[in-house]
Each structure stands twice: as structure tokens, then as C-alpha cells.
Amino acid sequence: MLFRSEGKGVTVLDMAGLAQKNGAVMSFVRIAERPEQLHAARIATGGADAVLGCDIVTTASADGLAKMQVGRTRVVANCAETPRLGMSSGAANWSTST
Questions:
Q1: From first to last of its 98 residues, what are the pLDDT tens digits of the chain?
Q2: Which run of H or of E encompasses 58?
């Protein structure tokens, strides 16, 4: 809302891969000086200026990396190891040590 109140153009596209079943979720947010500068909601290959990676597996996936370009994209990523449901319920022998 802040960007729209300033007259900027904003599009948001959420692509959910069934997060409740540990699927990947990506959100594409585009911001422009004027709304008419935005022609698509999805980020093109190599077109990301910034990436906020909440899950390193999704961030470093083929789809995630395809949006990035060396020399253009800045990335802030969460690299914390988080056990999946099966691991945290004791179904698997999980450890962060290597």
C-alpha cells in the first residue's frame, strides 16, 4: 500500500507449491516508478534485482537461481537448517552435524 499511495506501480504474484506439504512457495513483487511501466507480474529469467530467500532449498533451486543474474541480483538468504515434519517428529534420525 505504501508504494501505491506514492503513485508507484506494484504487482504481486504468489506461486504456492503446497507449502503445507513442504512444497516451494515463491512470491514475485515488482515495483516501478509508474504503474504503466509494469507489463507482467512474473519476474523474467535473470530479472531479479533483489531476492529475499526464506528457505535456502527454494532459493537455490533451479527456478530460484534462474531469476538471478551475476552482477545484478542481490540476495539475502536464511541458511538455518530446519527439520521437516518427519524429521522433527522422530521419524528420521536427523542431525545438523556433518
A1: 667 777 888 888 888 776 555 677 888 888 889 889 988 888 899 999 999 998 888 899 999 999 999 999 999 999 887 666 555 555 556 565 65
A2: helix 56-59
